[in-house]
Amino acid sequence: MKRTYELLAPCHFGLEAVLKREILDLGYEISQVEDGRVTFIGDDEAICRANIFLRTAERVLLKVGSFQATSFEELFQGTKAIGWEEYLPQDGKFWVTKASSIKSKLFSPSDIQSIMKKAMVERMKEHYGVAWFPETGSSYPIRVFLYKDRVTVGIDTSGDSLHKRGYRTLSSRAPITETLAAALIMLTPWNRERILVDPFCGSGTFPIEAAMMAAGIAPGMNRSFLSEEWGHLIPRKCWYEAMDEANDLVERNVQADIQGYDADGDIIKAARLNAERAGVDSMIHFQRRPVSELSHPKKYGFLITNPPYGERLEEKRNLPVLYGELGQRFAALDAWSAYIITAYEGVEAAMGRKADKNRKIYNGMMKTYFYQFLGPKPPRRKTGDGI
Fold first, then answer.
1. Which pTM was predicted?
2. Mean pLDDT of 337-357
3. Which one, 203, 209, 217, 327, has the greatest CB density within 10 A?
């Protein structure tokens, strides 16, 4: 009989609704949505499918406990009360890899990590009847979140963050993560029938993520996950079946108009290599082209882009000209929409109009805004009798 778990999926702040929709589309029940995290119900198969299919989650955690703690003694006892032996084998390597604390009396990550590790060891010693653990087996990194003195504990099933799809070994100076790029695309009405152009494509993340969506390529198809080694919890068969499902959904002969431009020829070469590793190089046209030369003959396309923010002083001086060129070229495009994530505050002035929608999103630790300039919808295609 399959065991049911609560699974935690952290995501970028402000993009919880996108991840929630993804999880529902996979067929799982949502139990809670919080800032930067969605909790859902699933079995061992769900762990495999969530890791392979979710485009916007940062990782998938197996929730093992939740309790109140306002003192280190309460933290110790609450951690010790968790049934660790149900998850960790005697030779398992276990440690608290990350602790975060918001609005809680306990706030020192290193102290939280140390005390929880001691509590885990005490629980395991009592269960297994040994005084020492070799920790030579599979890895079980623990992540803990404290919010208003509520402690939530999860075991990381993913290993490397899920933004590491396996295709990007070369990147531009200020890349956008794959998970954030996917989430932003999913916030737009773009689909594979519509044109997509990124005039500041850098290492190609927006075009590659869009192409993977268009071809039905699951983001986790070309990487491994830490919990693949947890044979006592997740049968190997579950991973094989989830990967077979992912392979069955790939559409190899999809036609799409996806383009990526950048003024840096070397980074365009890197983007092409990244697209090749992702298996979508035939779907994307990359070209060295400055934003001042942005153009497209067709109507109803999408600009989705992450322009420079001007983190360095010399770059900041160039931003008004750069964004001004973007605004001029966008105005020359016929009936297009533009979606721009940036920390630069002069976007609307450069575009010559107020954004139709604006969403605050944290790109790493930097507060950015996702400006949405909506163009007209294309007319509906007439069907029937060849009309």
1. 0.94
2. 96
3. 209
